[in-house]
Design a protein that fits this description.
Helices cover 36% and strands 18% of the residues. The protein has 537 residues and is an alpha/beta fold. The protein has 2 domains: 9-285 and 465-492, ATPase, nucleotide binding domain (Nucleotidyltransferase, domain 5, 2-Layer Sandwich); 292-459 and 506-537, Nucleotidyltransferase, domain 5, CATH 3.30.420.40. The strands form 6 sheets. Strands 1, 2, 3, 5, 11, 12 and 13 form a 7-stranded mixed beta sheet that branches. Helix 16 crosses helix 17. It binds D-xylulose.
């Protein structure tokens, strides 16, 4: 080791997503950085006693999607135990931050504050969380049951333009304000017993520091409650949502804020040091940094449970059509984002319907022609966010449900064309796409992406960009806190590395997709007008 470099330091990034929790650890020694640990656990498999399916508690109504905050706490406990037992020298962990699925809310009672500060290291975390909850379950981003509350909030603040121009988004069913309002209306007593409404991110951060944690502007802007211009709560929306909400919301702090240190619970239970904890953020803001988008001009596409298209924005130019969002970015700028709920689960639905493995799914893509001979699928297996579809069911146009390979190509092409169409509002003319998320491991899917967008697609050696981004955010914030600030370029340099196998678009295919996208747009408009569906999938 070079003596002038000093000992290495570790920065931990956690990601509590819809279906799993992951950790990425970056080792920093002088100017050198390397990823020394990447690990994940799936909620359904590792914690089967909660009975979740794809991370969601069993449901009969497709509009309702809730999960268990106790399960997330147990997963955090297991993951930090795994980190402590991983063989890395955890005494060198100096910073830890996290990423979480956006919009979901956790309702804590007045007991939570004293209980958070007195977590007992002899007892599992999960057993101590139950008594903190004013609501047993947490609504998550897949919930689409709050159309009424969206309308009520919109009307109360003076209309859609007022809401979106102040908060960055029109009212969306999954956003936290309509979810809070629904809880207040349907369970008024439990709402009254709620002392703090946390996001998933600030709930988990609270468990780490042993006190109520703040939120950052990236996750705060996914609530329909935060004024983008000031990164403070926008009172007209707060007042339109539920009584006394202002006193129940967390504080909002800049994304590179050290909010505390790992609480004694973690030190005593897992032998971790009193590392600095940096405010958590949403998975999309974290991914922005985790794929190196710290400058304007490129976009990222994350193929996860949700598929998202996002990019850094100079100015918060809010989507006039209302399909997208402007969030705060970890760099202090803004980011545009469009979210599609029919992501990996729709791909899985098609794979399972035809009894295929993932390699057979890829072979079906390889064996079918770009453009699928004009056969089109609108992949709305579950309620869709973009465009708003409340009656789920895939719609097929000229496509036989019997033809397995054509359906495989149709779901992938449908998803990519929808992303290209509905991200136009962001106005980013890009020739490079940073691809991330589980689905980005499939080159055949990325080939369709490159051809539809007419852009080169790059992948990264760490495919969990949300956990990676959280680790990098920890590095950025802890360095600043220690009086040695780094620029964002310096933070990502040498550690967010595009793989050499980028995928280039085929100009001929791209021209064809530009035509096909017009047909896709027509099919979409027709299906939205009719509202009915071919439920054959
Ligand atoms: C973004 C969104 C999803 C979740 C998934 O607006 O709803 O991407 O963050 O984790």
């Amino acid at each position: 080791m070079n003596a002038t470099m000093g000992p290495s330091k570790f920065f931990v990034g956690l990601d509590s997503s819809t279906q799993s929790i992951s950790a990425v650890v970056i080792e920093v020694r002088g100017d050198e950085r390397r990823v020394v640990l990447q690990t994940s656990l799936q909620f359904d498999e590792a914690l089967p006693h909660y009975g979740t399916q794809h991370g969601i508690l069993p449901r009969t109504d497709p509009a309702i999607a809730v999960s268990s905050p106790i399960m997330w706490a147990e997963a955090l406990d297991v993951m930090l135990g795994r980190l402590a037992g991983s063989g890395i020298d955890v005494s060198r962990v100096v910073g830890i931050s996290g990423s979480a699925q956006q919009h979901g809310s956790v309702y804590l009672n007045a007991e939570a504050r004293p209980r958070l500060s007195a977590l007992d290291p002899r007892r599992p975390l999960a057993s101590q969380v139950e008594a903190m909850l004013a609501r047993a379950v947490a609504p998550v981003w897949m919930d689409s049951s709050t159309a009424v509350e969206c309308r009520e909030i919109t009307a109360a603040v003076g209309g859609q333009t007022a809401l979106s121009s102040h908060t960055g988004s029109r009212a969306f069913e999954r956003f936290t304000a309509p979810q809070i309002r629904k809880f207040f209306k349907h369970d008024t007593d439990a709402y009254a017993a709620t002392a703090r409404v946390h996001l998933v991110s600030s709930f988990l951060a609270s468990l780490l520091i042993g006190e109520h944690a703040p939120v950052d502007p990236g996750d705060g802007s996914g609530m329909n409650l935060m004024a983008l211009s000031s990164s403070q709560w926008w009172m007209p929306a707060v007042e339109a949502t539920a009584p006394a909400l202002a006193s129940k919301l967390p504080e909002i702090v800049p994304a590179s804020t050290v909010i505390g240190r790992l609480a004694p619970y973690w030190q005593e239970r897992h032998g971790l040091p009193a590392a600095k904890v940096v405010v958590w953020s949403g998975d999309n803001p974290c991914s922005l940094v985790g794929v190196g988008l710290v400058r304007y001009g490129s976009v990222a596409i994350s193929l996860g449970t949700s598929d998202t298209v996002f990019g850094l924005m100079k100015e918060p130019s809010v989507d006039a059509e209302g399909t997208g969002h402007v969030f705060g970015a970890p760099t202090g700028d803004y980011m545009g984002l469009t979210c599609f709920s029919n992501g990996s689960l729709a791909r899985e639905r098609v794979r399972d319907a035809y009894g295929l493995s993932w390699s057979e799914f890829s072979r079906a893509l390889e064996a079918t022609p770009a453009g699928n001979d004009g056969q089109i699928m609108l992949p709305w297996f579950d309620p869709e966010i973009t465009p708003t579809v409340t009656r789920p069911g895939a719609r097929r146009f000229g496509l036989s449900p019997e033809d397995a390979p054509a359906n495989v190509r149709a779901v992938v092409e449908g998803q990519q064309m929808a992303m290209a169409l509905h991200s136009r509002w962001m106005g980013v003319e890009t020739d490079t796409i940073h691809a991330t998320g589980g689905g980005s491991g499939n080159r055949q899917i990325l080939k369709v992406m490159a051809d539809v967008f007419g852009a080169e697609v790059q992948r990264f050696d760490v495919s969990n960009s949300a956990a990676m981004g959280a680790a990098l955010r920890a590095l950025h914030a802890v360095n600043a806190d220690d009086g040695r600030p780094l620029s964002w370029d310096e933070v990502v340099a040498g550690v967010v590395c595009p793989l050499s196998d980028s995928i280039r678009p085929d100009a001929h295919h791209h021209r064809m997709y530009r035509q096909l996208m017009m047909a896709y747009e027509d099919c979409e408009a027709r299906a939205l007008r009719e509202g009915s569906s071919d439920r054959s999938a």
